[in-house]
Design brief:
The protein is α/β, with parallel strands linked by helices. It folds into two domains: 177 residues, NAD(P)-binding Rossmann-like Domain (Rossmann fold), CATH 3.40.50; 144 residues, N-(1-d-carboxylethyl)-l-norvaline Dehydrogenase, domain 2 (Orthogonal Bundle), CATH 1.10.1040.10. The protein has 15 helices and eight strands. An eight-stranded mixed β-sheet has the order 3-2-1-4-5-6-7-8, sandwiched between helices. The mean pLDDT is 97. Bound molecules: 1,4-dihydronicotinamide adenine dinucleotide and 1,3-dihydroxyacetonephosphate.
């Protein structure tokens, strides 16, 4: 493993993959992106834009792109995985034999895998045959469009191996992007996955015409339920007070730029799951799948996550958002911290 990471490959040219490539490029790294569609790769390579995902954003000249994963991975010192959670296993399996052996693996995805109920670093560890503790997880309040516009933002780089996190911290820190390190991978990954589900709920509340008190209640009680799950899995409770918890909840639950919040808003306004999916234009709203995997994980551990449960019921059992809200309010009364 090299402490001075100069050549980075980003696998996935969606919103966050492209914005994170720009962060690395603006930090002076040589970046090669892999795009699923050659048309997107050509747009980045020839015109220094990704008009499909980040229209109007100029990309630095030290970013190139290809649709050939073998070419993209040649000589990479770090490999950033920037595809949606539920497709990571299939994509990574096809890339596994192309990964340079010493490259640091970096995960951008925020989700929990359906079926296995694994966090992304666990999926990566299993497929590549490495300790999940070697994977660097990027999380925090990082709405891609704002970062691509160069607006100041902080992030968390979580890795059990502090040296790897520091190597990526050095590689991506720039004048508008301030990454912190953290060794609590469990807490950081759960924060990033759970907040997408809570953002669905705040969007839904907004779609129903509800105001700021409801949003604050959902954010705060969402924080309580993600921290309960984290505690059961050995996370540091302080993590949820940081960028990966409160920070990302505030950003995602309140911003119209969030795909999860927007998706929830559409459901709250009475659209069907299919209509909301069509309106997302192929971009991922991770909470729609993660509400089911996180609910299953919580149930397997005996952890109560009522908002996540309600989102699963709305998204996958056809329950009306008003009915789900009424059920949340009708639960038995309890102490705030019980
Ligand atoms: N967009 C954002 O603001 C942020 C996103 N994230 C996370 O980063 C991950 C990637 O998100 P985005 O880049 O925003 O997603 P996106 O939907 O904008 O792009 C996904 C990319 O993955 C590729 N891909 C490869 N295989 C795929 C498959 N089977 N299904 C769908 N897409 C496939 C797509 O072609 C596309 O280039 C997600 O887990 C998301 O939660 C995290 C922080 C910020
Ligand atoms: O993770 C994000 C911000 O930190 C992006 O959220 P959305 O996927 O809801 O757009």
């Amino acid at each position: 493993m090299r402490a001075d990471v100069q050549r980075v490959t980003v696998l996935g040219a969606g919103s966050w993959g492209t914005a994170f490539a720009k962060v690395l490029g603006d930090a002076g790294r040589d970046v090669t992106m892999w795009a699923r569609r050659e048309q997107v790769a050509e747009d980045i390579r020839e015109r220094h834009v990704n008009s499909a995902y980040l229209p109007g954003v100029g990309l630095p000249e030290n970013i190139t792109a290809t649709s050939d994963p073998a070419k993209a991975l040649e000589g990479a010192q770090a490999v950033v995985l920037a595809v949606p959670s539920q497709s990571l296993r299939a994509n990574l399996t096809s890339w596994r034999d192309l990964l340079p052996p010493d490259a640091i693996l970096v995960s951008l995805a925020k989700g929990v895998e359906l079926g296995t109920l694994k966090r992304m670093s666990e999926v990566i560890g299993e497929i590549v045959g490495i300790d999940p503790g070697e994977v660097v997880v990027v999380t925090g309040p990082n709405l891609a469009k704002e970062i691509a516009a160069g607006q100041p933002s902080a992030s968390v780089l979580a890795c059990a191996d502090h040296e790897r996190a520091v190597a990526i911290q050095r590689a991506c820190a720039n004048s508008y992007f301030r990454p912190y390190t953290n060794t609590d991978v469990v807490g950081c990954e759960l924060g990033g996955a759970c907040k997408n589900v809570i953002a669905l709920s705040t969007g839904m509340a907004a779609g129903l015409g509800l105001g700021t008190n409801t949003m604050a209640t959902l954010i705060t009680r969402g924080l309580a339920e993600m921290a309960r799950l984290g505690a059961k899995l050995g996370a540091d409770p302080l993590t949820f007070a940081g960028l990966a918890g409160v920070g990302d909840l505030v950003a995602t639950c309140s911003s119209p730029l969030s795909r999860n919040r927007t998706f929830g808003e559409r459901l709250g306004r009475g659209e069907t799951l299919e209509q909301a999916q069509a309106a997302a234009g192929g971009q991922v709203a991770e909470g729609v799948m993660s509400c089911s995997s996180i609910r299953a994980l919580a149930r397997s551990l005996g952890v109560d996550m009522p908002i996540t449960d309600a989102m699963h019921r709305v998204c996958h059992e056809g329950v009306d958002p008003r009915q789900a809200g009424a059920e949340l309010l009708g639960r038995s009364q309890k102490h705030e911290w019980s």
